[in-house]
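ok so i was messing around last nite and threw this chain in just to see what happens. nothing serious, just curious
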Amino acid sequence: MTTPLEARSLIKAFDGDAVLKGVDLTVEPGTVLGLLGKNGSGKSTLIKCLLGLLKPTAGEAFVFGEDAWSLSAAAKGRLGYVPQEVVTYPWMRVRQVIAYTGAFYPTWNQRLADDLCRRWNLPLEQRAGVLSVGQLQTLGLVLALGHEPELLVLDEPVASLDPSARREFLRILIEITGDGDDAGGRVGESARPRTVLFSTHITSDLERIASRLALLKDGAIAFEGESDALKERVKRIRLTSRNGALPTGIDIPGAIHTTVEGVLAEATVTDFTPDLPARLAAENNVDVAVVDLNLEEIFVEMHDE
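result:
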């Protein structure tokens, strides 16, 4: 099966300043990949390069095996994209925008579009130009989902949605990817595997829906893999001395943050192994406690180093 999205040594610079510095990323069929990164880390730039909306300075990007910069109409018909800011035809009514967009896709599922509009309470007779930011983003989701794409790329899709609409969106996304109880029924009849690239700052959403995570930092992918693997790799360790104050320069392998206060020390390590607590206890005459971190805590720790 053709790989939906792939970046090879992708570099993108603006006025000589590199935002992407050799990104390698492969999104396999059927994957829900959560893309994490701070504001300004280059997430939107990476997405646009992957989809052929920006030309890379160097490296390659592929969509279904085709060069992203020269995608065929057939490949474009297999993907859906929701940018951070949805742009549409302000003079058209919502129902007209949906009908106009649907006319471009032989696979357009009007029943699905109608169902999504109902679930999100979209005002079909309202002109698109007077929609709220949240309503406009919801319309963008309907337009991206209506033709039942094999590949769905979402750049901060829930940033402007109210809690109710956001919850409904996540439920739909779970159905799309085949993990819901009624997957494939209420969200379309396509039997094709669905692949999703989902960029967001809301880590709790990613913990709920993403099967894999990619962390973009300093212009490159700092981690890519299953979320459980990241949680097993990044831990907080607390040391309590059995014999007086601990040295301020205590050596903890893989530590990105270390604080020492008297007999207590705390460190966040990025390469935790099951044998590390015992080694630290023996080498430093300390008691060791290991604390699990959630995804938000890991994100903060890895970006504050």
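not much to say yet. Confidence is low (pLDDT under 50) at residues 179-186.
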